[in-house]
TrEMBL record:
Chain segments annotated as transmembrane: none
Protein name listed in UniProt: Leucine dehydrogenase
Superkingdom of origin organism: Bacteria
Family, as annotated: Belongs to the Glu/Leu/Phe/Val dehydrogenases family.
Domain Glutamate/phenylalanine/leucine/valine/L-tryptophan dehydrogenase C-terminal: from-to ranges: 156-365
InterPro entries from the UniProt entry: Aminoacid_DH-like_N_sf (IPR046346), Glu/Leu/Phe/Val/Trp_DH (IPR006095), Glu/Leu/Phe/Val/Trp_DH_C (IPR006096), Glu/Leu/Phe/Val/Trp_DH_dimer (IPR006097), Glu/Phe/Leu/Val/Trp_DH_bac/arc (IPR016211), NAD(P)-bd_dom_sf (IPR036291)
Active-site residues from the entry: K92
GO biological process: amino acid metabolic process
Gene3D superfamilies on file: Leucine Dehydrogenase, chain A, domain 1, NAD(P)-binding Rossmann-like Domain
Binding site for NAD(+): G192, T193, G194, N195, V196, G197
SUPFAM superfamilies: Aminoacid dehydrogenase-like, N-terminal domain, NAD(P)-binding Rossmann-fold domains
UniProtKB keywords: NAD, Nucleotide-binding, Oxidoreductase
Length: 367
């Protein structure tokens, strides 16, 4: 037996305190010397069904950073899946390392074996730096994987569905803020013209919104200006842009101490995960400034809905679109609850998600 030094003991204690704080069920550390695999599978909550959430590969600055990311992202999946009305729980995996250097077939298949080892308690899919090809490799070792290419029975690219949900959430926010969900003539800024941003711009321009865009890559902007009539806003001018609606569709953390005081908009509604750098503090700052915030984990749930029907074995585009459309009603409900309770929309959305988990959990108890 290895004797624990005092510092090792402290680490074990603090590791468990983080898991306890967020109330995770199980966290699996995966290691394989041969392939260089270091991964964490975080299973947050399986009350509604197996934990589902993608695998992210990132060159984390430290193992602690990777752990914190896995824990936060998996909790986020629990809330997202619950409020979307899906019968799945929340989980997420992270692989530590530079995808461009160490990702290969053997590493992905070894990771697939670890996914298999939790025996269906966790289903994976794509996230940052993962492709459908990687999901194919994982599928060689385990059936507990979604986000497969269409020729393998997969549901295909989730981005169009994510964009549709964001569009629905944005319209619900407009209804609350302006009394009408008509976006024609509204000035909307889409930050990040990637997969989701592009589909969102399509919906918005078709409705007659005055769209402006921002991206850090010129080629991405060019792809948009070749297709749509839009204004361009430099990346460092996004926070104080004179717009009605700001749609963050790039990175998380764009709602923070620096940006919130500069915002000119009435509404924030976008696809990026974890937009509020600090959930409570920055959610409250937006509320105090009278800016209506549509919770990210609620309105970006269209993509996971697409993956869910792949897992459930009864995927159809119509079905996913219909379920995604419900984001409109749920967003209205969240704003009403927020107004009645004086809590932020983010807190109100968490309450609705947690209540569903509790009530469905109760009916699962044996009679
Ligand atoms: N793809 C989905 O179905 C889905 C589902 C849920 C949540 N999300 C989240 O939505 C966001 C967008 O996803 P995506 O699939 O479109 O990603 P993507 O990588 O295709 O697009 C992101 C875009 O943001 C740009 N960008 C990065 N930093 C920027 C900055 N500082 N300013 C302006 N632009 C910047 C990138 O150049 C890129 O064009 C991500 O945060 C993602 O986690 C996506």
């Amino acid at each position: 037996m290895i004797e624990l030094t005092e510092t090792m003991n402290e680490k074990v204690v603090s590791l468990f305190s983080e898991i306890e704080d967020m109330n995770h069920e199980q966290v699996v550390l995966c290691h394989d010397k041969e392939t260089g695999l270091k991964a964490i599978i975080a299973i947050h909550n399986t009350v509604l069904g197996p934990a589902m959430g993608g695998t992210r590969m990132w060159n984390y600055a430290s193992e602690q950073e990777a752990m914190t990311d896995a824990l936060r992202l998996s909790r986020g999946m629990t809330l997202k899946n619950a409020i979307a009305g899906l019968n799945i729980g929340g989980g997420k995996a992270v692989i530590i390392g530079d995808a461009s250097k160490i990702k290969n077939e053997a590493l992905m298949r070894r990771f697939g074996k670890f996914v298999h080892s939790v025996a269906g308690k966790y289903y994976t899919a794509e996230d940052v730096n993962m492709t459908t090809r990687d999901m194919e490799y994982i599928r060689m070792e385990t059936p507990y994987v979604t986000g497969l290419p269409e020729f393998m029975g997969g549901a295909g690219d989730p981005s169009p569905y994510t964009a549709y949900g964001v569009y629905m959430g944005m319209k619900a926010a407009a209804k609350k803020a302006y009394g009408s969900d008509d976006l024609s003539g509204k000035k909307v800024l889409v930050q990040g013209t990637g997969n989701v941003g592009t589909h969102l711009i399509d919906y918005l321009t078709k409705e007659g919104a005055k769209v402006s865009v921002s991206d850090i890559f010129e080629d991405k902007i060019k792809k948009i200006t070749d297709r749509f009539v839009v204004d361009i806003i430099p990346a460092d001018e996004v926070a104080h842009a004179n717009v009605d609606i700001y749609a963050p569709c790039a990175l998380g953390g764009t709602l923070n101490d620096t940006t919130i005081s500069q915002l000119q908009c009435d509404i924030v509604a976008g696809a990026a995960n974890n937009q509020l750098l600090d959930e409570l503090k920055h959610g409250t700052q937006l509320l105090e400034r009278g800016i209506l915030y549509a919770p990210d984990f609620l309105i970006n749930g269209g993509g996971i809905t697409n993956v869910y029907y792949e897992y459930a074995g009864n995927h159809s585009r119509e079905r996913v679109m219909k379920q995604t459309e419900l984001i409109y009603d749920t967003t209205c409900r969240v704003f009403d609850l927020s107004q009645q309770s004086g809590k932020t929309p983010h807190e109100a959305a968490i309450k609705i998600a947690e209540e569903r988990i509790k009530s469905i959990g109760n009916i699962k108890l044996p009679l």
